[in-house]
Design a protein that fits this description.
Length: 238
C-alpha cells in the first residue's frame, strides 16, 4: 500500500482544513519546503491540492510546478480542473496524474466525453477521479455542493476510463477522529481498479485497517502535520 503525503495549498501556504471548510485552516509553512521534508523522510510521491483553485478564489499553479521541479517526485494534483483545456495543460506541464472531481461529475451526464478524450490523448494512467463523499454521496465544487450520486455508482460508470480513484470521506476529513472503515471497504470492493483513501486517518492503526481492505494507497494530511503519524513509520507499514 502506497503512503502519500498531502500538501494542500492556500494563498501560497501549506494548510490543513477541517472537513474542507474555508475558515478552519491551519498554516504550516512554505509548500516547497514542506515537500522537501517529505522527500527527505522517504516519500515516493506527493498529493498536491490547490485549494484556492478548487474554491474559485485564486491559483497556486506556479507553486505546484515548483514542487514538481524541486522534488522530482511523481505528483497527483487536483484543484480547479473544471474543463478539458485545463486538464490538457496540466498534463502537458509534466504533472504525473491529475485528480478530476467537479469536471468528472459534469462529464458524467455526457458519458464522460472529455475524460475519454483525455484518455485517448494522454493515456488513462494520468487520470484519477475524485470520489469526494459526504454521507455516501458525491460532493463537488470544492466540497460545497452535495449531489444525489453515490460514490459506488460513479465507480461503476468509470471502469476502464481512468487509472483509478481517490476516495475522500469528507465527514471525517481533518478531524483526527479516525476513519469510517465500512465506507472505505464498500468503495474498494466496488472496483478492481486502484483506490487511494483519504480522510480521517489519524493513527497507524487506521492505516493497518485500510491496508486490509486492499486499497492501493492512502493520502496522509493532518495526522502528519500535527504529529499523529510519523511518515517514516507509515512508509514502513506500506
Amino acid at each position: 500500500m502506497k503512503v502519500i503525503p498531502a500538501i494542500d495549498i492556500m494563498d501560497d501556504h501549506c494548510v490543513q482544513l477541517i472537513g474542507g471548510e474555508p475558515g478552519t485552516e491551519e498554516f504550516f509553512g512554505d509548500p516547497v519546503e514542506i515537500a522537501m521534508e517529505w522527500v527527505q523522510a522517504g516519500a515516493e510521491m506527493l498529493h498536491v491540492i490547490d485549494l484556492d483553485a478548487a474554491l474559485g478564489t485564486g491559483d497556486n499553479l506556479d507553486t505546484v510546478l515548483r514542487i514538481c521541479r524541486t522534488t522530482k517526485l511523481p505528483v497527483h494534483f487536483g484543484g480547479g480542473i473544471r474543463d478539458y483545456e485545463r486538464a490538457q495543460y496540466l498534463l502537458d506541464s509534466g504533472i504525473d496524474r491529475i485528480i478530476l472531481g467537479t469536471m468528472a461529475f459534469d462529464d458524467y451526464r455526457a458519458d464522460f466525453f472529455n475524460i475519454r478524450r483525455l484518455g485517448e490523448e494522454f493515456g488513462t494512467h494520468g487520470l484519477i477521479v475524485a470520489l469526494d463523499s459526504r454521507g455516501g454521496r458525491i460532493v463537488v465544487d470544492g466540497w460545497q455542493k452535495l449531489t444525489e450520486l453515490k460514490a459506488t455508482e460513479f465507480v461503476e460508470r468509470l471502469e476502464g476510463l481512468v487509472w483509478g480513484f481517490l476516495y475522500t470521506d469528507v465527514d471525517v476529513e481533518g478531524r483526527m477522529q479516525g476513519i469510517n472503515l465500512e465506507r472505505i471497504r464498500c468503495v474498494v470492493e466496488s472496483t478492481a481498479m486502484p483506490v487511494i483513501v483519504s480522510g480521517g486517518i489519524s493513527s497507524i492503526a487506521d492505516l493497518e485497517k485500510i491496508k486490509e481492505t486492499g486499497a492501493w494507497g492512502v493520502v496522509l494530511g493532518k495526522a502528519l502535520y500535527v504529529g499523529g503519524i510519523d511518515l517514516r513509520e507509515a512508509l514502513a507499514l506500506g
